[in-house]
Each structure stands twice: as C-alpha cells, then as structure tokens.
Amino acid sequence: MKTSRVLIAAFGLLASTSFVQAAEVALPPFYQGLAAISPDQSLGTVVAKEAVATQIPGAEAWRIAYVSSDAMERKTLSSALVIAPTADMPASGRPIVAWAHGTTGIAQNCGPSQVFDPAQDLNEYNLIGGTSWTDFGIPAATQFIKDGYVLVATDYQGLGAGGIHQYANAATNARDLINAARAVGSMGLSGSNRKVIANGWSQGGGAVIAAASLNDYIAAKGTAFDGVDFVGFVSLAPQDVEVLIPAAAESDEAAAEKVINGLAQSFSDNVFNFTHYAMAMWAMPAAYPELQLTDIFTEDGAKTLTEVFTKKCMHAGADTLSFNFGETYKTLLKPQASNAQAWVKRLRDASVAKEPPIAPVVIYYGNKDVTNPPIMGQLYQAQKCAIGGNVARVQLPGDQNHFTTPPASEPLYVPWVEDRFAGKPVENGCPAQ
Q: Of 359, 175, 160, 341, whose CA–CA distance to 259 is shortest?
C-alpha cells in the first residue's frame, strides 16, 4: 500500500514560537488525495466515492468524502461510510440513520471507515469479539438494513480528509453528522424520504445532542439536500462539558481557573481517561486559534502530545503515554492553567447550544460509566426540559459501563427508531415537576 505523507497545518503554540504539526501516517488510497480537494461547495456535496464490500445481507456500501463545516462555519471535508439496501427503492423512499462514533483518535488515519471491511455491525476494541485496533462499524446495521433504512457513519473532519480533527468539539462534530445525512440524500439513496434519526455514542453521543439544538443549521437552504427532517436523537453515554461549567466562570478568571483545573482533575484519574481529556484540550486551538496549547500544557507537554496525537490513534496513544510516563502523566499539564476565561468561553461554544432540541431525545447510560459520568446527561436533561425539550434518560439494566452501553441499549433503541420513522407519538421523557 502506498504511503501518504500528511502535513497537518501549522499553528502557534507560543507568541514567540510556532511549531509545525507534521505527521507521516499511512492512508488507504481513497483518502490520499482528499486534503487537496476544495470544500468550497454546498454542504453535503459528495466529492469522492468508492465502493466497499460488505457481508451484511441485502446491502451495498461505499466510502465517501463530503462537504461539511466546523463550529466557526468554515467549510471542511469529512469522510464517511454509507450502507444501503440493494432492494428496489420504495415509493416512499428510505429513512436515514446517521451514526456518530465514539473516540478513535486525532491522527488522519483514525477514521473508522478506513479499516478493512468497515461495513458491518459495531465492532468494539474493548469488548471480547472486537477484531481491530479501533472501534468501527454501525450499531444494529444488519437490522436497520433489513428494516429498509439507509445508513451513514461520519468519520468527522480531520480523520482522513485533511485538516486537524476537532475532537470532542460537539458543535463541529454535530455539523459533520448533519451533513452526512445530506450527503446520503444527495446520492439519491433515500429517494424522496427526508426523515433522519441521529444515533451516537460517547464523543458521538455529544455530537447527537449538539445536533438536536442546531435547528437553523438543519433548516439551511442551498445545501446539496435541503429539508432533512430529524425526527429523533439517540444518544449513548454522551459527553457534554458545557453543563459542568458555572455561568460565573466566563466573567471571573479565578472561577474559570477553578473550572479548567477541576476538569483536568476529574478526567485524569487514569492514563486512559487522561488521554481523552488531553486530546480534547489539544484539539481546541484547531477551532479557536486564540487559544494556546501552553495555556494548558507545559511546553514539553505540548510538544510530546503533538508528536503522539498526530501519529497514533486512541488506544495506541494511551499506551504510549503509559509506557513513557507511567504514573507521572499529569506532569504534561501546567500546575495552573492560564487564559482560563477564554478557554471556558470556547468550551461552551464547542458544546451544546442553549436551544431546545427540535425532536425527541433519548439518552441511554450505564450505572458503572466512569468515562462519561451520567451526571452530564442528567444535567443536560434538566437544562433542556426547562426550556421545552423532550428528553428521556434510560438507565440500562444490570451493571453497564461505558463500553457495554452500545450493545446493552440496542434492543431498546431499535424499536424506538422504528416508532419515530413510523410517526408514532412519543411520551414526554422529562421528569415530572
């Protein structure tokens, strides 16, 4: 396989010093030329397509690249996996299920659609039966194809189509999710049907609840497939940092420093969770250039994390930090964050908008989840129900952790999805006052 040299854009770490993030990573042939394609086209426009084999009965699949935008409305390219039934198109068309994956990493070769045989049911690294170095596939894909839906799974921007991945920036990841649905429609795979359900886990769960509050973006005209109609949002163990930030933190530096330091403490209890946290903070300047990595990390820490994150995906990156730093991985962080108010503001901007969801939301969570604490979903529900949203939370039966949430929730959300596409009424999931 030919090796692609991917040059990731330069940005300033210090006012007096700048570093070039240059990483050499191997990409499959389909992805090698994507970074050179201009994204200056309508949202959802498919700019490249490649057929992919699948063992799902009655299905065909493709890798695609399509036009999206980030939280600052700058046009981007994202890649994705599409799976569709081979049966004749029904007169009513096919509804769309748009999947948003959990954490895979930041490097260009971390997109799930890049793996060998990607068009299958969700295949998790941490679970017995997982077959790869990463999570890939789409939950309930076999069942959804049988039900006659067309499926799309975004990789998000920066995971194969150029640019720096804005990891855990729910506002950006949500736009990739919405535009993935537009891309499927523009391919003619949904016919006249514009109904969409978003489904996502972890990082993708955050993208789903963020998408639910982007009504104006969803309703935008002049896209490659106008009129996408999101009828429901399924969020598995979502992250939502905004609900953890008190309002006073934006106007008081001491309060903001307390928030930033508190987030570091909360999400750095082990090297695995620290890797998630460090990737999220490392990715922020890609969206908001006024932020500096050395506001959060030491200078050596910023250099080290840049070297790791631009070359290695999630699990390999965590292993590298563990091997090289052992229990001292927190020394990559500054003892005290600086420019904290700016970071707090941008963490809010990167999270869920303060608007009610446009359709019912259901959150599934496990009682043993220590990766994305369920309190985030609880606070999100309270916030959105208070402004007229319909948000249900369902604790999964038994002892379920972050990684068992997708399989444990599947029997519950599959009929929920069927009911939403069928137009059946849904009870208000908000707690009684």
A: 341
Contact 412, 394 (CB under 8 A): yes
What distances in angstroms separate CA 236 from CA 77, 132, 244, one per listed residue? 26, 21, 18
The CA-based angle 204-210-212, given to 5 degrees, is 110
pLDDT at 23: 55
Residue 156: strand pairing partners: 79
pLDDT in tens, 31-59: 999 999 999 999 999 999 999 999 999 99
Report DSSP state, residue 311.
T
Closest to 103 in 3D by CA, of 282, 245, 261, 259:
282
User: Position of tokens 């049988």?
Assistant: 146
Q: Which residues contact 248 (CB under 8 A, 6 or more apart)?
A: 255
Q: Kindly calculate the radius of gyration of the chain based on its CA atoms and give it in whole angstroms.
A: 20
* Token representation of residue 67: 């036009």
Q: Please state the separation of Cα 315 from the chain's center in Å.
A: 17
SS3 225: coil
How far apart, in whole angstroms, are the C-alpha atoms of residue 424 and residue 192?
A: 20
Residue among 173, 169, 236, 208 nearest 371 (CA): 236
Beta strands in 251-376 (DSSP E): 361-365
C-alpha span between 124 and 365 (Å, rounded): 17
pTM, rounded to two decimals: 0.94
pLDDT tens-digit series, residues 377-426: 999 999 999 999 999 999 999 999 999 999 999 999 999 999 999 999 99
Question: What pLDDT is stored for residue 247 in this prediction?
Answer: 84
Rounded CA separation 81/114 (Å): 9
